[in-house]
Amino acid sequence: MQxxxxxxxxxxxxxxxxxxxxxxxxxxxxxxxxxxxxxxQVGKDFPVFLHPKTQEEYALxxxxxxxxxxxxxxxxxxxxxxxLEEDLLRRDLTVNAIAQDNLGNLIDPYGGKKDLENRLLRHxxxxxxxxxxxxxxxxxxxxxxxxxxFTIATETMALMQSMAQSGExxxxxxxxxxxxxxxxxxEKTPHxxxxxxxxxxxxxDWFTELKRNVDTALETLKTAVDLEKVENESVVKDTxxxxxxxxxxxSETARLITRFTALLTxxxxxxxxxxxxxxxxxxxxxxxxxxxCKFKGFLLNAQNSPADLLALFNGxxxxxxxxxxxxLLSAFAPYAHSKGVDWQEQQKRxxxxxxAAKQVNVQDIIATGVKGPEIKDALNQAKLSAIxxxxxQ
Length: 393
Prior knowledge:
- This protein has 393 residues and is α+β, with helices and mostly antiparallel strands.
- It has 17 helices and eleven strands.
- The termini are far apart.
């Protein structure tokens, strides 16, 4: 039994990037041998085991043969006779098909190290085309390593285009496509993901609504990233520290929401909802996107009447969901900037109007003797008056 470190850990170490997780391939072993050494089996379709102490993944060397459509249609052979070279051959990119033994020696039968040096993403074999998810994975890798100057090999891009034209991308699950999209959106240059997909004709099945004005969408997404940089620089200046604050899951979610909203705000509400539904985007994200598309006219207009602002607050349920409304205003900033709006001033105007309207107390209205359905009308009228008083200041 021989154990090798493989994939991302080897690739990132060679690129001097931080290694986040380590995966291993085991050659010459059986499931029974792994279990006898205390490993826990977790893979159903092929034998993957968790180390009893580190909980890192150890997979038996395997080969795969296409047996149906999609990314799940494979017959797997994980017998003890499968060699390391055969296991590496089934992988997507040469840079992911490098192994390292326990002495630090590299096993690189397909030229991955050279491709790393040449900053090239190249498929290992023609078997690449058997898994449609790889179109999205390559787009994600191109996004992650764009800052290092990586490009996609011409022959690999041609293969990706052929895969997209075959219709196989439509067989993928929404969850897998959204996972690749979400991870790419959180990278340094998220626009690269969609640029690559557009070049590979990979927007057709999953991002249909983006195709017509993809350049506009990507420019707004770039604006979102630029605004984040400005904000981060401001934080560094205020704190006097060059070390960024640790990122929380909340801040990561907010960044995802802002970037995805920036990408889609040029769509109308129905188009945005269709795209989010197709990808099964979580409600926390899709709600903000839909609201931004629905109310972008109100949000952009510096000459909003009190009635317009009240309609905005009511439509977004800013009374009961003020935190969501605040997130909407933040996520809308890139689109507003792309339209040349002084968003800082406009956001302040909207927030002041909301604060004034929230000062209206329904109990005070009831105390005047108003009853039944008339309470709602009186409440809205009082809110309009409060907003008007702010606008007139």
